[in-house]
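User: My collaborator sent over this chain with a note saying "see what the structure looks like." That's all I know about it. Can you take a look?
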Amino acid sequence: MSTTRDVAIFLFDDVEVLDFAGPYEVFSVAGLRTLPQKPFNVFTVAEKSPIIARNGLTIIPDYLLEDCPLAPIFLVPGGGGYRADGTPFGSRREMHNPVVLEWVQKQANFAELSLSVCTGALILGQAGVLEGLKATTHFKALEGLRAISPHIEVIENIRYVDNGKVILSAGVSAGIDMSYYVVSKLLGEELANEAAQYAQYDYWPPAKA
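Assistant: Without extra context I'll predict from the sequence alone. Here is the result:
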């Protein structure tokens, strides 16, 4: 491996912790025991600081949107929904945030790989990144993803979907499976298996659409 790829993970208030922390762990430690050079440099980015994730976890992002370098890999996690009064929060709010959508479009145009976990797919979809592609998301958000555009082919009952440059996973823990798949895609299955074994993560299915 001759280069280290940057991996930018977007954060927002009410982000689901495992949606971003699972992939953060996978990319941060993959290859450290087997390669001469660290294959991934993982950092977080948000519109503001600090971020309050689900269940009150406070996070200081490494970058804000305006000073974040463009990354060859970027990931949009999910988390959120609607409050009792109908107010959107988390990904349901950010999918209508023009500042976020502009940044996502810019990143997607630059990136080697655009990734989403769970309802992060709603943000990618609203940004126009998923037009003409297969996509998946949390099982409770499938209809919401379909409602964004008739040109998104929504796939159910699948852990992750690979469109080449755009890869999406289903809900929460499925983001870990997707991340090991991306490691396999970029660095080989042997290295991905070693990383999963080190983490004692015994199940990451190769099944994809």
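A starting point for your reply to your collaborator: The first strand starts at residue 5 and ends at 11.
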